[in-house]
Design a protein that fits this description.
Layout: H1 3-9, E1 14-17, H2 21-33, E2 39-42, E3 52-53, E4 56-60, H3 61-67, E5 72-75, H4 82-94, E6 96-98, H5 112-117, H6 119-128, H7 132-147, H8 150-155, H9 162-167, E7 175-179, H10 185-193, E8 199-203, H11 207-214, E9 221-224, E10 227-228, E11 233-239, E12 245-246, E13 253-259, H12 261-265, E14 272-275, H13 281-286, H14 289-295, E15 298-302, H15 309-320, E16 325-330, E17 339-344
Parallel strand pairs: 1-2, 1-5, 2-4, 5-6, 7-8, 7-14, 8-9, 10-13, 14-15
Antiparallel strand pairs: 3-4, 11-12, 11-13, 15-17, 16-17
Helix pairs in contact: 6-15
Length: 346
């Protein structure tokens, strides 16, 4: 039984923790399943008397502790902040708590039915991983997505330095293609681990993020105000409140420029490519296939934006370059964000 089926079948009050896009998505799933939300609360520092969300008054956790002897807490926001994680874990110790998995992009839920429909592909992807840690991470992510239980989420977390120290060709990687450069955080991380770096191609379509990226003064960083795609194209994207622009039908939309890495590089060498492009990873991979086949760069591919990414993208990368070894790592985040596929040729 998956989390949504369990929630539908229990009479315990169901309380949403947090407001915003994540809560919107959970409430939409509730409506789909015929589940009633019995209230919503904010962290004490965000509580404002008289505030409401979806016609429910926003209260404090302590208010529901006084109102109900027993209730279920559903975390609706994403965080990697230590103090916020600590508060979530404190509540989880006191109450029955879940962090429902709702996709960042797309409407496909990772339900028991979805798992059964894609069981063979999920098994095929799992078989591609080169070490036991990757398979453990994969299993914990799948179990988390079905149940929403923090125990699986926490068990899937890895040391963020380990890929740099053990998997990637850190000493040899001199040219980096940063697809989804955001504000330059991963470009600076690359420079810190690869001191002999010569050049970084930093692609970022979101004008807000690109302004911050442009403020970094380092002549090795080539800033490109375009998104990664499979061809040169102008697309309509949503400007949400998250990390960047996304191709959805919700919110204010703008026209943004996109291009393929193959076309931009035009045969120039690259040693390492990162794909964190807000649900467009598949398009970006196809748009860099020639570069991958020509130079066999290390690859990092984000696998958390769409429900199918966790199995579809490893299979795709393996199809491009069967000789690559594939590793799966996930870093500290609630819910299951920061899932990274590392594809390495040794």
């Amino acid at each position: 039984m998956d989390l949504w089926s369990y929630l539908k079948g229990t009479d315990k009050p169901k309380i949403i923790y947090g407001m915003g896009n994540g809560a919107d998505k959970i409430l939409s799933v509730f409506e789909l399943y015929g589940i009633k939300a019995d209230g919503i609360f904010a962290s004490d520092e965000f509580y404002r008397e008289g505030k409401s969300f979806h016609d429910m008054p926003v209260l404090r956790y302590s208010d529901f502790c006084e109102k109900y002897y027993d209730f279920i807490v559903l975390v609706s926001f994403a965080t990697n902040l230590p103090e916020v994680r600590a508060n979530i874990l404190r509540i989880a110790f006191e109450r029955e708590l879940y962090a429902p998995c709702v996709p960042v992009y797309g409407d496909t839920l990772f339900t028991e039915e979805y798992y059964n429909e894609h069981r063979n592909e999920i098994g095929d992807a799992r078989a591609l991983f080169a070490d036991e840690l990757s398979r453990e991470v994969f299993d914990n992510i799948i179990n988390y997505r079905l149940t929403g239980k923090l125990e699986y989420l926490l068990a899937s977390e890895c040391d963020k330095k380990e890929p740099w120290e053990r998997l990637l060709h850190t000493k040899d990687n001199k040219v980096f293609a940063d697809l989804g450069a955001y504000t330059g955080d991963t470009a600076l991380e690359f420079l810190s681990f690869c001191p002999d770096a010569e050049k970084i191609y930093a692609m970022e379509p979101d004008p807000r993020n690109f302004r911050k990226l442009s403020a970094i003064e380092d002549e090795r960083i080539v800033k490109i105000n375009k998104g990664a795609w499979d061809k040169e194209q102008t697309l309509e994207f949503n400007m949400g409140a998250g990390r960047g622009a996304s191709q959805t039908n919700k919110g204010k939309t703008v026209l943004l420029d996109f291009d393929s890495l193959d076309r931009l590089l035009d045969g120039e060498r690259v040693d390492y490519i990162k794909y964190d492009v807000e649900g467009s990873e598949e398009k970006a991979l196809f748009g860099s296939r020639k570069t991958i086949e020509l130079f066999s760069p290390d690859l990092l591919v984000s696998l958390y934006h769409r429900s199918e990414d966790i199995f579809k993208l490893p299979i795709l990368v393996h199809g491009f370059m069967p000789e690559y070894k594939l590793y799966l790592r996930r870093f500290e985040y609630i819910p299951d964000w920061d899932i990274n596929l590392y594809a390495i040729r040794y």
